[in-house]
Amino acid sequence: MSVLTAPHVATLNAEADLDIAAGNKSLLRFLTCGSVDDGKSTLIGRMLYDSKLIYDDQLASLERDSRRFGTTDDNMDFALLVDGLEAEREQGITIDVAYRFFSTPKRSFIVADTPGHEQYTRNMATGASNSDLAVILIDARKGVLPQTRRHSYIASLLGIRHVAVAINKIDLVDYDEAKYEAIKADYLAFAKALGFESIVVLPLSARYGENLTVRSPNTPWYLGPTLLEHLETVDVESRAAEGPFRLPVQWVNRPNLDFRGYSGTVASGRIHPGDRVVVAQSGKESTVARIVTADGDLSVAVAGEAITLVLADEIDIARGDVIAPASARPEVADQFEAHVLWMDEEALLPGRAYLMKIGARYVTARVTDLKHKIDVNSLEHLAGKTIGLNEIGLCNLSVATPVAFDAYGDVRDTGAFILIDRYTNATVGAGMITHGLRRATNIHRQDLTVGREERAKLNGHAPVALWFTGLSGSGKSTIANALERKLIDRGIHSFLLDGDNVRHGLNKDLGFTDADRVENVRRVGEVAHLFVESGLITLCSFISPFRAERRMVRELFAQGEFIEVFVDTPIEDCIQRDPKGLYARALKGEIKNFTGLDSPYEPPEAAEITVSTVELSPDEAAEQVIAELVKRGVL
Amino acid sequence: MSEPARLPLTPHLKRLEAESIEIMREVAAAFDNPVMLYSIGKDSGVMLHLAAKAFYPSPLPFPLMHVDTLWKFKDMITHRDTIAEKYGARLIVHTNQDGVKRGINPVASGSSLHTQVMKTEALKQALDLPGFDAAFGGARRDEEKSRAKERVFSFRSAGHVWDPRNQRPELWRLYNTRIGQGETIRVFPLSNWTELDIWEYTRAEAIPIVPLYLAAPRPVVERDGMLIMRDDDRLPLLPGEVEQTRTVRFRSLGCYPLSAAVESEAATLDDIIDEMKVSRSSERQGRLIDSDESASMEKKKKEGYF
Prior knowledge:
Oligomer: heterodimer
Strand content of chain B: 5-15%
Number of helices of chain B: 8
Strand order of the largest sheet of chain B: 3-2-1-4-6-5
Shape of chain A: globular
Order of helices and strands of chain B: HEHEHEHHEEEHEEEEHH
Strand content of chain A: 25-35%
Structural class of chain B: alpha/beta
Number of strands of chain B: 10
Largest sheet of chain B: 6 strands, mixed
CATH class of the largest domain in chain A: Alpha Beta
Distance between the termini of chain B: 29 Å
CATH superfamily of the largest domain in chain A: P-loop containing nucleotide triphosphate hydrolases
């Protein structure tokens, strides 16, 4: 970490001037972050205004809006230039990421304006993911706040290497140098652990434009650059071009039988025709024959360019594969460790299946182990079972099929992923891979001599899992028991896994929180799968309240091998029956997280069998299931 | 596309180009039935050109769609048909026939109703009929305040509803392309381009534009401080108005009674770019639908306007 001083900036200036002369005006993407009312939008609005980037008609509308919504009495409220959405203009706050564009003779800028209040931290991560530098605002009257620490940490986690700390509203503390120095010392002490490459701390008044684009006469003690000078000159040159070559294949370009190309954007490194390459996932090798673009073939392509590669050999490559040099391959594994930032109201549950997008590939993923959460204020490690909205955890993840990846610190584009909810398709998490887990590469499946078909033949019936789901007291276990009696009487090999019984042994370490319920079902699913492999008709009686976990279990099985039986009993009937007296206790508040009362039950949307216990006796219900098994050719 | 000489792209334009191409390839690979909304304007021109480059040497893997309100400038329609042919694109033209039957037009019905029926509703019809699941639009974030907050991949629930408070976070360039039944995505590959970038790229790549962008003597009337071109005789003169010939051009093109001209001598692309660099007004100033009320663009977007 180096704290930039004025002479350093002057040198950078000279270099930048040379670049401009050569017609290479560079681009800086930065984000602004800070707490509510620190003045981020004012800062950006003021910067646009001072750079003469506000058109007359926009200015007229600003004057009009300042009178209607303004929070600065008679003066123009610059925040209104950037606070776009109606709701936030009325409340005087920013609620979403907004992108602004401006340029000076030296540089073009894309600014991500991100919100300060706690519940919208996900937006800040969004802005940070595509930025080179963060401007962090601190209210001079308040000093370093928890959100300041949070935003700095997120910036560092997302790989931002440069920070400009704007101690804003310096006018409101009478341009007091001691105040500035105290906050600066405070911040630098905290940020030491974050590993930024450069930090510059400025005293600023966004409202009056002091030290923003023009030096302020009120802070003669400050010798560093104005914010704009710093932004124009700070060296943030991307290192992506120096890394190992990576091309995540987005689209197979196949206009006719004579042309087959692999289109994508170079994530890192450079490539030339004649280079030896490999498909990371399959290990198949070939040589680059051509680098095709609409402007003609290239002799070299570097990170950031959108190209189409043609290879010398016909090898099988699909969307989602990663092309890399044979000599510097990415890791390929189905388990790795990553930081996960959670962005959804519904917490991340270890064991639950999510959809991961990494590069151009979608793959099912689950967190197998939440190692710890990170307290973003103290950077301390905390124990936890779930990751809530705006929380960050270090996790082990496992994916359904091996993927190619790099550590996020090495190659951003192949080390980052997002997590998607499989039902709502919402983007719920963002992750940055730290490293692969060796155990994934070392454990191989043992080929077994006797297969399931042989076992089925010996038994005289196909194996299936019958998964009974329903509220507590709905009659799952009663029906499952009646059914097993009938199966055994018919000479069928079966086994009954019961929720309560399993919790006495295999799962006695689990409670009834959402996270534990997910793990409970996951383990039972795996056990049921083993029993089915062994040839048994396996009856499973579990409340299993969440669709996501029932689907996860379903996916362990082959098509037709998993039969979901929804025991559909209205909660009023369950409460009335209350065979174990549990509802009575739950209603008195003696049992927490009780399904159907204070913990949700998500009924199946397309169960293979639905039995209504209001109309049928347990015996009749069991007969209904047997009839269905006969119909499906199981019996 | 062997056409007029092209200039080498600056690193800045190359970077924008690569980003847009990546976005377009992602859509072609991840969606079943994408479509590109082609409005004939300068942004659409750049978008179409980028698409041709993105999939080269393959042909465009999706059709173009133009929502015709029947009040576009004549020059625009001519340009549209020429361009579709030049790029070898399949062109779908849709008009809201129900609106035609109801006699909706910008002169008698007013800008607001005309836009609602002939553009927003027409667009929904056009997307719903063939079940398009992703639609490219040429909007840029620098155009307008509510657009500055739009995602590149902008999720619309069934019925094309945009909920600005409930947008998917968009990190890195990892676009979430997953949607459910009836849901769609609007994709904005030009999100990070500015108006100046569009013109500089148009010049560098020699992309054809509608002549109306360039200054020429044209018949106009002055109305509410705006210069409206009389493209045909469907625009009656109000009492006291006289048609006059002035040297004007357009910064933004739409339905001709709703698009104001600016007085300008900029008759070439070089002139336009020079003029832009010293301009003191934004391009949307000439759009009559925006000034109805503050935040009116956000309102229109929630209803499904592009």
